[in-house]
Amino acid sequence: MIWWSWTYDARCHLVTARPCLPIVELLPVKPSSIKSAGVAIVLAATCTPALAAGSDEGRAIFGLVGLELAFLEALALIALACVFVPLSRAVGLGTVIGYLVAGVVAGIGLSISFTGDPEGLLHFAEFGVVLFLFVIGLEFRPARLWAMRGTIFGRGLAQVMTCAALLTAAALLIGLEWRVALILGLGLALSSTALVMRGIDESGERNSVFGQTAIAVLLFEDLAIVPFLLLVTLLAPSGEEATLADNLLAAGIGIGAIALLILIGRYALDPIFRIIARTRTPELMTAAALGVVVFAALIMASAGLSYAMGAFIAGVMLAESSYRHEMEADIEPFRGLFMGLFFMAVGLSLDLSAVAENWLTIMAAVPVTIALKGIGAYGVNRAFGTPHPTALRIALAMGQHGEFGFVLFAAASSALILPGDVASVVVAIVTLSMAISSQSERAYQFVTGKPVHETIDEDYTDALGSVLIIGFGRVGQLVAQPLIAEGVPVTLLDQDTDRIRKANKFIERVYFGDGSRAEVLAAAGAGSAKVIVVATGKPETTLQIVKTIHRKFPNAALFVRAHDRIHAVRLASEGVPADAIMRETQLSALALSAQTLRALGYEDDEAEEVIDRVGKLDSTRLAEQIIAASDEGTRDAVIAAIAPEQIRRK
């Protein structure tokens, strides 16, 4: 989104403007986001009193004036968010739609200063955009980008440009001016990262061909918004022509600022954070992380470049830092604070009269634009050799438009490229396409004839095992086999219907259920079980199950499968004893190493002595790390610093 910073010169009565380009993406919004949005709105009210007062400073409601009135207005927005966001999630439309609806309702039903100046509220919320780009930079490690370069910059570029060309052509056909058509085509070509990623995660297909391809294209779209916004700046009408010397000077200053930022990030930031971490003061680490973002943004702004570009570069420079996870955890709450506020402000700024006048156009345009985008995505993926079922699924999953469209259209509107009524219409198109995107999986199943993912109405009346095993994958199956062979009564619980169907062919019964839900565990006999074994594959799922068991079923002996050392430290921080945590690869790796030593001529007792010595050293290190991570305030920093250590030679 392009915002113009206006400066008044009283001596010569001139007003000058300079653009800055923040960027935003739809993020998966956690349940706590409602509270975060509320706090952000309070921040908006308190930190920008001009928004709440301005020309209304003399106004009073219930005897409240000035800052008190600002709090009352913020409370009204919080209440709307708390009503519409849960409703939107309940009907499967996601949190962003809820925020947008809350903003629209505020604009219709409330007469407050925010509704009178939604652009000012958007300007305040843009700081969340800058924070978001910093976090995106932290995720874009250079090595990761290089490994995925072919798919990201090959298929991603081809898909976005093909979809943009089809949509731009459609806009030209209906008589729109070429610059307007181009911006609409580029904006509508971008998908919703959060909606697509949520579907991938829910189906557990992050590592599948479908998941990897979709993620790579989404990564390209995350990067593409930067040049798209720069294109808006180039296309924007300007009052005067800049000379070649001016352009060269501006380019040189920009390159110099980027080089300076890269040097600072490469050589100065990590030592600074190392010094700050030694103070063991969490709030200082948070302040330092925010300070890095603000500093990078100011460097870019001083060179006339995008705030967001500076934040992104700073994030990339810190992507390999041992403090990356700590900084991401510190920034995350602030990012969530402002993102909900941003989308409410988008809803507030929607021109409802333009939407009402063009509702037939909107209803007709939604299926047309989704179809054109789906055709483009399908064609590109087939051209890259993707099988028909996978290409079709990608086309349906990525057929919707995303929140980057909001940003690009608002930027074009601010730059006087996109008329206000057209911007409101396309925002409505994006919103409706997102609303129906939740049905993409059903559409795929309808087209291909594949059955819908099953759920099972389970009856736990015969779940009487003294051992409850949660997760019946490759680890859970091996855990269960000796117990079943010894006649130990075992209750097996899993959430994968296909796995349950296959398992029931060779074992008596595997129950269907979500092990993170207390009521499911209670029905499966967790209250009477002597031992509970958590063998689920996803670390975050395992942590949630462990928390539920500790809270509801503390009497059972608990043994947990850990994905790796970091997961083991986190489990220990949740109260699981160290000797009850089994890393899934540790014992097999040590056994394989012992066999290797024997093949090299070591006697059995010599090989066992070496393995025992290395195992004890590893256990000692793990115990030290668990103790260091016991303090909740420094836990994330300790875990982020865990790295392989060199083994001493004899």
From TrEMBL:
It holds the Pfam family TrkA_N. It comes from the Bacteria. One of its GO terms (molecular function) is antiporter activity. Keywords: Antiport, Ion transport, Membrane, Potassium, Potassium transport, Transmembrane, Transmembrane helix, Transport. This is Potassium transporter TrkA. It is a multi-pass membrane protein. The chain crosses the membrane at residues 60-84, 96-114, 120-140, 152-174, 180-197, 209-236, 248-269, 290-314, 334-352, 359-380, 406-432. One of its GO terms (cellular component) is endomembrane system. It is found in: Endomembrane system. InterPro entries: Cation/H_exchanger_TM, K_uptake_TrkA, Na+/solute_symporter_sf, NAD(P)-bd_dom_sf, RCK_N. Residues 464-582 form the RCK N-terminal domain. Its main location: membrane. One of its GO terms (biological process) is proton transmembrane transport.
